[in-house]
Design goal:
It is a single chain. Helix content is 36%, strand content 14%. It is an alpha/beta fold. The chain folds into two domains: 121 residues, Aspartate Aminotransferase, domain 1 (Alpha-Beta Complex), CATH 3.90.1150; 240 residues, Aspartate Aminotransferase, domain 2 (3-Layer(aba) Sandwich), CATH 3.40.640. A five-stranded parallel β-sheet has the order 3-2-4-7-8. It has a three-stranded antiparallel β-sheet with strand order 10-11-12. α1 crosses α7, α8 packs parallel to α10 and α9 packs across α10. It is globular and about 65 Å long. The mean pLDDT is 96. It binds pyridoxal-5'-phosphate. The site of pyridoxal-5'-phosphate has 13 residues, from α3.
Length: 383
């Protein structure tokens, strides 16, 4: 741990005793903690991997291990494909807007990320106005099966608010309607059922403890049929956004253009770490233990409480914790930062007296327990 460094002149000068500090101070909701073991493994193979052609076997083997590892982790049916490409989740939204929505989509909008996809689709001149169902922050709406809706856009975990939802295919949805799920912060840490979903897309800088810039989208036959249908139709699709091109390359363990090789390796390493230790029960178990540590602390604390009232919707990957007026969450986050405990600040646009703390599987429960001890210490010093 780095020693105390005041981050700004207004940060209260509170030095947390060294024995209270977590061993690793990274609690960011994304990019999130990368496991040192994965970085060491990357350094070990670096000379034969980094700086080599992504069209040759050294790299294609790692892409193949990543795709196979995800199929194993998610227990994908044999007729699914793991599709991947460059640009992260934000780029995937654009690719889906142009290559996965036939005419009209329905979006559940309950925070910063879920609202962004809906806004992007609303601005597409070749699509009908989307149906957007909103709820208050701290909650999520339910999808409504509706004739003529050809894509349902769900978000497994809304990272800005710490709300997660169960994934179910809406009753009454058209037979060929695609259920597309933004799983960026949930994938690998919250269970889901492949029978309820057609396209489960994410970027690997959250629960997969890698770096950003890549999108990964396990797709069902229904989703691939849609990709093929739109590609064969009259719509103009920019080559870099073409999901059919991404699909064709992915089955060859390639990407359309050059990917970040370190990102692919670190993601593969995390997926194999999950699988070697028992798969989703292992990874979700780690997040659940982390969630129990932080929410358990908040429920007992006089100064704090979980923001999400409904326990069933409370995220097990990103905890949002409200603080009483007597203590400033911004001050707490600044003091923690000065003590080497990073990125606990709340989501700005929510505008609450709140901290947001990642609970991803890479994070040790003992470090979250240490964090709660540091929170008690800082709150005591500030009040
Ligand atoms: C982080 C995040 C995104 C954005 O991912 P990028 O790879 O930065 O585009 C989108 N949706 C959710 C739910 C996220 O958590």
């Amino acid at each position: 741990m780095p020693s105390f460094q005041a981050v700004s002149q207004t940060t209260p000068e509170i030095q947390i005793p060294a024995e209270k500090l977590p061993a690793d101070g990274r609690f960011a909701s994304g990019p999130s903690k990368v496991r040192p073991e994965a970085v060491t493994a990357l350094a070990e193979i670096a000379d034969d991997f980094l700086g080599t052609s992504h069209r040759k076997n050294a790299v294609k083997d790692i892409v193949g291990r990543l795709r196979d590892g995800l199929s194993e982790l998610f227990e994908l049916p044999d007729d699914w494909e793991v599709v991947l490409g460059n640009g992260g989740t934000t780029l995937f939204w654009d690719a889906a807007t142009i290559g996965l929505i036939r005419d009209r989509s329905q979006h559940l909008s309950f925070g910063e990320f879920s609202s962004k996809f809906a806004k992007g689709v609303a601005s597409a001149p070749f699509l009908a106005d989307p149906m957007v169902i909103e709820s208050n922050t701290g909650d999520h709406p339910e999808a409504v099966g509706t004739p003529g809706i050809d894509l349902y856009a769900l978000t497994h975990n809304e990272t800005s608010t710490g709300v997660s939802m169960n994934l179910t295919r809406p009753a009454g949805a058209d037979d060929d309607a695609v259920v597309a799920v933004d799983a960026t912060s949930a994938a690998g840490a919250i269970a889901w059922d492949t029978s309820q979903v057609d396209c489960y897309y994410f970027a690997p800088q959250k629960a997969f403890a890698s770096d950003g810039g890549l999108w990964i989208a396990p797709c069902s036959p229904r989703a691939m049929d849609r990709i093929n249908e739109i590609d064969a139709g009259p719509r103009w699709i920019p080559p870099g956004l073409n999901l059919k091109t991404a699909l064709d390359n992915s089955v060859k363990n390639q990407t359309y253009n050059t990917p970040a090789l370190a990102t692919i390796f670190l993601t593969m390493h995390q997926v194999e770490w999950f699988n070697e230790n028992g798969g989703m029960s292992f990874s979700t178990g780690r997040s659940q233990a982390n969630a129990a540590a932080i929410y358990g602390w908040a429920e007992k604390s006089d100064a704090a409480q979980p923001f999400v009232a409904d326990e069933a919707k409370r995220s097990q990957v990103v905890a949002t914790i409200d603080f009483d007026e007597a203590v400033s969450a911004d001050d707490i986050a600044a003091v923690l930062r000065a003590n080497g405990i990073l990125d606990t600040e709340g989501y700005r646009k929510l505008g609450r007296n709140q901290l947001r703390i990642a609970l991803f599987p890479a994070i040790e429960t003992s470090d979250l327990e240490a964090l709660t001890g540091c929170l008690d210490y800082v709150i005591d010093q500030l009040s």
